[in-house]
Amino acid sequence: MKIHMEQGRSLETFEKALITLEQDQEITGIMIFACDADQWTPDQLDPLLTRCRKPIWGGIFPEIIFGEQKLATGTLFIGFTQPVKTVIIEDLDEEPASIRQAIERGFGREYTLEQTMFVFADGLSHGIERLRDSLFQTLGSMPNYVGGGAGSLSFSQSPCIFTSRGLQENAAVLTLATQKSGIGVAHGWQQVSKPHKITESKGTHIISIDWVPAFDIYQEIVEALSGKRFQDHDFFHIAKAYPLGIAYQDLEMFVRDPIGISAENHLVCVGDIPTNSIVYVLHGNTESLLAGAKETVETATKAFELATQKQIQEASVTLVIDCISRALFWGKAFSTELNAIKGAPKVIGALTLGEFANIRRDYLAFHNKTIMTSFLE
Asked: What is the pTM of this model?
């Protein structure tokens, strides 16, 4: 695996980095992580992406990770040397059957156990759960899933998915790599409310909780816990510290991030929340979030050593997918979270709008406010 970090924004250097990896005979495919602040457009990049003769996948994110720092500008190019197969889902509003067929056509009956599936999707699409369901129904829990939601903190959709067909919106790109990996996933958020039932929802909108308008319930709980009033602050200023946790069988709760209130007074989240789900309001502090980050390293280390019979220092790269809202919660102290991964080889990553990862080997979930550490062979 070959890594090239392009500091700043320059179309000329973007093209040069892409051509260098394309012409390298060892490289089989190219993963690209770029920053939203650089304001790349299809008009600028599509001629370069579509000319490249090797598979391309990745996304534009609020920020990226390189070494021990997060960056708001610049582009990461990661050249793979193992065989890869790529599937592009150009419209996440397609029917589930169409998405499943595209996955089946692209990967066939590939034996995916001990392989790694990279999943990058428009994080503001309403089709995220449709994609997740289709992936899990088609490939199950055999591969290690690694990826996240691309997009902007403006919460306005725009082209953000890198593919060989150009920069795309409301799309996803899936890449199956033969390399082994070890992953760890955790969040560190703690339950601070009694259980509540989602009595009506539609996609990413929660309409009612316990038969009461959703925002009314959420507002009552969070204002009591925080001592702050939503009418005095921007919604996300308060909500970023009080996500929702969805109970799922005996697994760790996965998290949903409330990001706003719709015109109809619905609670809007990143990712779907199904009707009849049982949810809790969660809260955390720097200690609990740091414990979650450290847990991912421990879990990923054990999984990598078991899968490869190698030590983590022999990993080709450490890929960190961390939710941007965790970084917002940490503020200037975010380096503390990255320090949990200190000493790992070749750390790269992205701050995402949601994270795709297995929960143990049982279930593929689209997480929010979660950190995933993965060691790649």
From this structure: 0.93
